[in-house]
């Protein structure tokens, strides 16, 4: 298998048929350069690929900061876990009250809004994940 050498720009060398042979240059400010570099680093692309995709890809390229996304998903998962833990504690408490033939009405009154909140957060999470998967599939 023949290995292809990279050019000094970091892109693959032009291929025989329809390869990249033209250079486009643009001047940007230091802040613009840092912003482009950060975007490229965040999504794991070279700056050349990022710029090419932004210019020629139109709406196809979705810039996703994977590190931030994973942190947010981790935070959401932890919140859902804590809420689930609270629901389990309330259910355990209600069962203990029923076992001792006491009315768990106040416990149920606490349980219902917590469970509704849990369902709302879970639905929002599912909706956002579906949106993210659709964006990634494009």
Query: How much of the sequence is in beta strands?
Result: under 5%
Q: What is the count of helical runs? A: 4
Major beta sheet summary: none
Instruction: Specify the structural class.
Output: mainly alpha
Total strands: the figure is 0
Helix and strand run: HHHH
The unreliable regions are 1-9
Helix coverage percent: 55-70%
| First-residue to last-residue Cα separation | 32 Å
Alpha-carbon Rg, integer: 26 Å
Whole-number average pLDDT?
Answer: 76
Shape: rod-shaped
Could you please describe the fold and organization of this structure?
The protein has 138 residues and is an all-alpha fold. It has helices at 30-43, 47-57, 66-99, 105-137. Helix 1 crosses helix 2 (47-57) and helix 3 runs antiparallel to helix 4 (105-137). It is rod-shaped, with a radius of gyration of 26 Å. The two termini are 32 Å apart.
What's the topology here?
Elements: H1 30-43, H2 47-57, H3 66-99, H4 105-137
Helix pairs in contact: 1-2, 3-4
Question: How would you concisely characterize the structure shown here?
Answer:
With 138 residues, the chain is mainly alpha-helical. It has four helices and no strands.
Task: From the structure above, extract its key features.
mainly alpha, 138 residues, 67% helix, 4 helices
């Amino acid at each position: 298998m023949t290995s292809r050498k990279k050019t000094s720009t970091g892109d693959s060398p032009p291929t025989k048929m329809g390869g990249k042979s033209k250079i486009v240059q643009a001047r940007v400010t230091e802040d613009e350069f840092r912003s482009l570099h950060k975007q490229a680093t965040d999504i794991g692309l070279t700056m050349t690929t990022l710029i090419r995709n932004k210019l020629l890809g139109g709406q196809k390229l979705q810039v996703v900061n994977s590190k931030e996304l994973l942190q947010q998903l981790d935070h959401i998962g932890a919140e859902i876990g804590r809420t689930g833990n609270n629901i389990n504690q309330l259910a355990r408490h209600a069962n203990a009250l029923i076992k001792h033939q006491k009315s768990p009405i106040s416990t149920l009154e606490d349980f219902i809004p917590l469970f509704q909140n849990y369902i709302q957060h879970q639905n929002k999470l599912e909706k956002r994940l579906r949106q993210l998967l659709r964006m990634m599939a494009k």
